[in-house]
Automatic annotation (TrEMBL):
Binds 2 divalent metal cations per subunit. Pfam families: Peptidase_M42. Keywords: Aminopeptidase, Hydrolase, Metal-binding, Protease. Zn(2+) 2 binds at D175, E208, H315. Belongs to the peptidase M42 family. GO terms for molecular function: aminopeptidase activity; metal ion binding. The lineage of its organism: Bacteria, Bacillati, Bacillota, Clostridia, Eubacteriales. It comes from Fumia xinanensis. This is M42 family peptidase. SUPFAM superfamilies: Aminopeptidase/glucanase lid domain (SSF101821), Zn-dependent exopeptidases (SSF53187). Its cofactor is a divalent metal cation.
Amino acid sequence: MELKEKLRKLCESYGVSGEEGETAQVAAEMLREYTNDVVIDDCHNVIANVYDAGENAPRVMLDAHLDEIGMVVTYITDDGFLKVAPCGGLDMRLLLAQEVVVHGREKITGIIGSKPPHLTAEDERKKVPKIDDISIDTGYSKGQLEAIVSLGDRVTLKGEFVELKNGRVSSKSLDDRACIASILHGLELLKGKKLGCSLTVVFSSQEEVGGTGAAVATYKVNPDAAIVVDVSFAHTVDADEKKCGKMGKGPMIGIAPSLNRGMGDEMIALSKEKGYPYQIEVIQGRTTGTNADEVTITRGGVRTEVVSVPLRYMHTPVEVVELSDVEAVGALIADYLLSHDWSERGK
């Protein structure tokens, strides 16, 4: 299966935070191309030991998260509308008039209601709706809904996988399924190669609600070093260019107080040596907003670097990435694992 089709299959799977089981099964099956040592733990983390370099070799962990943002059903009104709360970082500006999928005992299509502009006061039009203002209309009565939907069931925004021009694709949940695809591409490039480190891949759960899955998985794996792969902001005409990367310009290599500067510098030097496109992302503040925040402080601490795929329209059902960037991230990771001197654990 080529990279684009792997990404399509990942994006089309269902995996809101806390209910990543379906996506975990899809990702685990893809990992079985590279190892038989694949497990899905009780938190829906997929953990795969891909390469064993021997008892005394350092272990490196690659991480990308499985989960996608969504909503959770909190109430069914007497009129048959569903009330919801966020499950992850929803952008409330997007929700009105969106088509959604309610994941109850069976999947139900719903519509988030929107008051006609003819009935909306001028001051209302200037306000971003609150989550309590959101109601999902499925067409069912309260009794019919109660037979299918339970409180706590998840809801996803409907976003189809669409191919755009110039090697770009759009879909829901490219954050972070594009990064799963990057790691899989890196594993493809490593096939048959000898590494100086043991390698474990983790596709982790619950990143969008705080990184619980990555914390659990890192404790189990106990790596000496980790590379966290996530998405970051690709420039759009309405965004500050200084705070964004650019699509088609390669991996965004992270620099932050909590990240290992030596790993980042080595990736930059490697990119220059190989002639790879790359971008430097200076992450401001004490945290990165990725699983690196959990990985770095697990057990006695793990030296960690973040490499990101540039992505437009984050946390929407129409996220966009360029496939060349997805591949370039995987290639950088593979080359780093092959070229780094793993004989010194702290290096």
